[in-house]
């Protein structure tokens, strides 16, 4: 039986029960990470939200999150995380050919290749369609030159989701094409950007005559804006409240970190800590539970204002969960909830701000102490006597990022206002004028 046929005939009526039964038969901690991820990925359980023809199960988001949690609760290594699973796979499943799905998505769900997102530019962040990186056709290849910024995971990526301008003579949204680009080539330079947390999750990426084969063009020439919007919708839904933790992983996929050859069972005990270190991807539920335990530990749980703010945080998390149920019910009757990914993204921004404010109130003056380098952490833990403090301070420092990345809060509100509520847009001619004739950011 082929992989696709096996997935098609095993569609579950109860996703959690089905994946648990499968894990009982298949989980083996002595497998290598690569061997386990291949077993998990080809079964359809690594990315159950993908369609069956794209190595998934066709489940809705709520059931997919339940499957992720069931794998973690079972004690097995979860699916390969990162932007490949969160963004590239659903985009290619929607817009790619079956040949591209078998080439790219198979390597994503089995963890063989890690991905990054090459969208934002120094002069095109909120106005993403104003990007100036260009791709010029040369035979059966494209030559790409330009600069990208805020590239999460670029330093460990094998492939990148690249949007570049392929026609400057048409309006800016119409002359963009979406590519899969090999990050391991001499035409690409990656420079980490150290954030105020002390980490370097983001990168600058410089492309100087990087080469992309024509076969790596996803979704059609000059149709990149539509393809990119699929990526962005998956990003906002995945990063939003109730979106699960698809971006987190105990082991790192791809060829750079060299986790694939290690024993799968060695990563299971660190999975929870890895998710907590992931900032916003750790989710509202785990942040709320941590803060409640901290408040109990130092007596702040009796403060009525702290209790009130904790319940406000709990309420936001519950609203995210209920919105997932709304989406599930709408999908069951062939509908959707307009603007829900954008609402979820806005909710997550509010959740991390709440976590920041409550966490710092709970720990008090100790919240001013943070180890910006990993080698300093043990000394700080000994001095404060609180090993959970870095989670609070790290969360507080990171809280400024979610309202910006994945589309700023202002962009989300504009989308809801214009596309969902039908409010008028600001007057401009960017839908009619050629991109080359528009004024450019400095």
Feature tags:
alpha+beta, 8 strands, Butyryl-CoA Dehydrogenase, subunit A, domain 3, four-stranded mixed sheet, 442 residues, four-stranded antiparallel sheet, Butyryl-Coa Dehydrogenase, subunit A, domain 1, globular
Order of neighbouring strands in the sheet with most strands: 1-4-5-8
The CATH topology of the domain at 278-407 is Butyryl-CoA Dehydrogenase, subunit A, domain 3
Task: Output the CATH class name of the domain at 278-407.
Answer: Mainly Alpha
Order of helices and strands: HHHHHHEEEEEEEEHHHHHHHH
- Rounded average pLDDT: 88
Structural class: alpha+beta
**How far from one another are the termini?**
57 Å
Describe what you observe in this structure:
Strand 2 (134-138) and strand 3 (141-148) form a beta hairpin. With 442 residues, this protein is an alpha+beta fold. It is globular, with a radius of gyration of 22 Å. Among the domains are: 3-112, Butyryl-Coa Dehydrogenase, subunit A, domain 1, CATH 1.10.540; 278-407, Butyryl-CoA Dehydrogenase, subunit A, domain 3 (Up-down Bundle). It has helices spanning 3-9, 15-26, 33-43, 61-74, 83-95, 98-109, 224-239, 271-277, 283-297, 304-332, 340-363, 377-384, 389-398, 409-420; strands spanning 115-118, 134-138, 141-148, 159-165, 176-182, 188-193, 202-213, 217-218. Helices cover 43% and strands 12% of the residues.
Give a brief description.
By secondary structure, this protein is α+β, with helices and mostly antiparallel strands.
């Amino acid at each position: 039986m082929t992989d696709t046929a096996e997935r098609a005939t095993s569609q579950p009526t109860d996703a959690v029960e089905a994946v648990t039964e499968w894990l009982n038969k298949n989980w083996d901690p002595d497998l290598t990470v690569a061997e386990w991820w291949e077993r998990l990925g080809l079964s359809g359980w690594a990315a159950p939200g993908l369609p069956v023809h794209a190595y998934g199960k066709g489940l809705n988001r709520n059931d997919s999150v339940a499957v992720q949690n069931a794998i973690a609760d079972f004690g097995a290594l979860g699916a390969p995380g990162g932007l490949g699973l969160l963004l590239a796979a659903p985009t290619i499943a929607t817009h790619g050919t079956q040949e591209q799905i078998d080439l790219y998505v198979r390597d994503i769900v089995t963890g063989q290749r890690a991905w990054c997102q090459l969208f934002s530019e120094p002069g095109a962040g909120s106005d993403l369609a104003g990007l100036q990186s260009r791709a010029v056709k040369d035979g059966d290849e494209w030559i790409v030159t330009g600069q990208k910024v805020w590239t999460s995971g670029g330093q460990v990526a094998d492939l990148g989701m690249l949007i570049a301008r392929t026609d400057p003579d048409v309006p800016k949204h119409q002359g963009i094409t979406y590519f899969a680009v090999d990050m391991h080539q001499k035409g690409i330079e990656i420079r980490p950007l150290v954030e105020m947390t002390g980490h370097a999750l983001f990168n600058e990426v410089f492309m100087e005559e990087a080469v992309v084969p024509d076969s790596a063009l996803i979704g059609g020439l000059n149709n990149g804006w539509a393809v990119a919007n699929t990526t962005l919708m998956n990003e906002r839904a995945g990063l939003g409240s109730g979106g699960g933790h698809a971006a987190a992983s105990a082991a790192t996929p791809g060829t750079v970190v060299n986790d694939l050859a290690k024993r799968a069972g060695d990563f299971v005990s660190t999975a929870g800590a890895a998710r907590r270190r992931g900032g916003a991807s750790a989710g509202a539920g785990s942040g709320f539970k941590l803060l409640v335990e901290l408040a109990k530990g130092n007596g702040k749980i009796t403060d009525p204002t702290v209790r009130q703010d904790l319940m406000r945080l709990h309420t936001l998390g519950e609203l995210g969960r209920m919105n997932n149920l709304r989406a599930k019910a709408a999908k069951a009757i062939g509908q959707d909830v307009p603007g829900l990914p954008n609402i979820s993204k806005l909710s997550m921004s509010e959740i991390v701000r709440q976590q920041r404010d409550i966490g710092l109130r709970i720990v008090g003056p100790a919240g001013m102490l943070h180890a910006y380098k990993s080698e300093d952490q043990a000394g700080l833990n000994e001095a404060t006597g609180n090993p959970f403090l870095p989670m609070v301070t790290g969360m507080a420092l990171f809280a400024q990022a979610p309202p910006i990345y994945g589309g700023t809060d202002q962009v989300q509100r504009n989308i809801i206002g214009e596309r969902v509520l039908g409010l008028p847009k600001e007057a401009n001619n960017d839908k009619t004028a050629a991109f080359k004739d528009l004024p450019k950011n400095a």
